[in-house]
Amino acid sequence: MERIGPLVIVEGPNKSKVPFSRSLYIDCKEKVLIDSGADKRALLDIKRELGIELILNTHYHPDHIQHNSLFPQAAKWINPIEFETIQSIDRIAEANGIYQEWGEAGVKMWRTNLPEEWIQNIEEISGTYDYETEYSFSNVNVTFLHTPGHTKGLSSPYFSDLGVAYVSDYDMTSFGPWYNGKDGNIEEFIESGKRLLSLDANTYITGHQKGIFTKQEFQNEMETYLEIIDKRDHTIEQYVRKGLTFEEITDIGIFYPKNSLNVPIFKTWERSGIRKHLHRLGLTVSERDGALVDVK
Ligand SMILES: [Zn+2]
After folding, report:
1. Is residue 37 within a helix (H) or strand (E), and if so which, with residue range?
2. Residue ranges of the Metallo-beta-lactamase domain (predicted)?
3. Which of 22, 193, 255, 262 has the smallest number of CB atoms closer than 10 Å to its CB?
4. What is the pLDDT of residues 131-178, one digit of tens each?
5. What is the 296 CA–ligand 1 centroid distance (Å)?
């Protein structure tokens, strides 16, 4: 396991690819773990050798709370916005765009397929930390920056003394920025990305795959990463010009591979993501007949 002073980077299976994520352990008296999506055995080793007493989740997505329930004794906190979201399954369905895309019937179907373990991971979260407030764990100072966009509540833990930021879903993968839930926002995603670049940090730890970047590397990657948003705008605009309907555009596979769109949740996020780009292009989908309507 890699270490940066008191911080231990705990890898998840497959280089922390979704449905797992990289965790960060603060080796301090308070025994703090940030996100619980890393390898189960590695986390249990840490628990045995160093202890885990407090888990801080950056946001409510399943890949970042994956192993919350492995540590029943630990307190678990999340950001204040999403502490409200997780108070009911319906609010989570709403935040994920399930209600928007499929109405009550879709929410009902989604509820029947929820893994028991995931619900347990959510239910174990019992409190919140504050945004933009410096916490001291032994001598380790950390501030949970509010960096909305990926989700409305996403926080990015920033260790100013160490010059380290944990940037979770700013993962710089070729998939590109993910803001596809109803609680995601493209403009905020871009703004928060810029804010992360403005930090006095030289180590950026991503939550998935690529790993750790210097500031210069993170800056270069960010440019390419955010450009994917413009490419999506452009692609969708071309289809609109060709006269495709919303339904037709959502069958192409602009975010997700076409052959994965038979998975209901991917199809949901594909649709909800396309709606956001249509909005940027000044268009909306008519509720009456599904036609694309100019809102400019
Ligand atoms: Zn996420």
Report:
1. none
2. 20-208
3. 262
4. 999 999 998 999 999 999 999 999 999 999 999 999 999 999 999 999
5. 32
Using the mean position of ligand 1's atoms as its centre, give its distance from the Cα of residue 64 in Å: 7
- CA dist 201 and 165 (Å) reads 7
Two tokens, residue 152 = 């409305």
End-of-domain residue from the set 223, 246, 272: 223
Q: How far is CA 136 from the centre of its chain?
A: 25
Number of domains making up the chain: 2
List the one residue out of 131, 148, 134 whose CA is nearest residue 195. Answer: 148
User: Could you tell me if 211 and 282 lie in one domain?
Assistant: no
Cα of 51 from ligand 1 centre, angstroms: 26
Mean pLDDT of the chain: 96
Instruction: List C-alpha distances in Å: 257 to 4, 147, 175, 250.
Output: 37, 28, 10, 11
> What does the radius of gyration of the chain's CA atoms come to, in whole angstroms?
19
Q: Are residues 254 and 203 in the same domain?
A: no
What CATH number does residue 82 fall under? 3.60.15.10
Given this model, what pLDDT does residue 210 score?
Answer: 87
Please give all residues whose CB falls under 5 A of ion ligand 1, grouped by chain where several chains appear. Answer: 61, 169
pLDDT range class, residue 290, cuts 50, 70, 90: confident
| Predicted local confidence at residue 291, as pLDDT | 84
Task: Give phi and psi for 228, each to the nearest 5.
Answer: -60, -30
Are residues 211 and 270 located together in one domain of the fold?
Answer: no
- pLDDT one-digit tens code per residue, 220-229: 999 999 999 9
C-alpha 170/C-alpha 192 separation (Å) is 10
pLDDT confidence of residue 52: 98
Same domain for 207 and 236, yes or no, is no
Domain that includes residue 287, residue range = 230-294
- Residue 150 CA to ligand 1 center (angstroms) comes to 7
Helix (H, G, I), strand (E, B) or coil at 294: strand
CA of 16 to the centre of ligand 1 (A): 13
Q: What is the pLDDT of residues 241-261, one digit of tens each?
A: 999 999 999 999 999 999 999
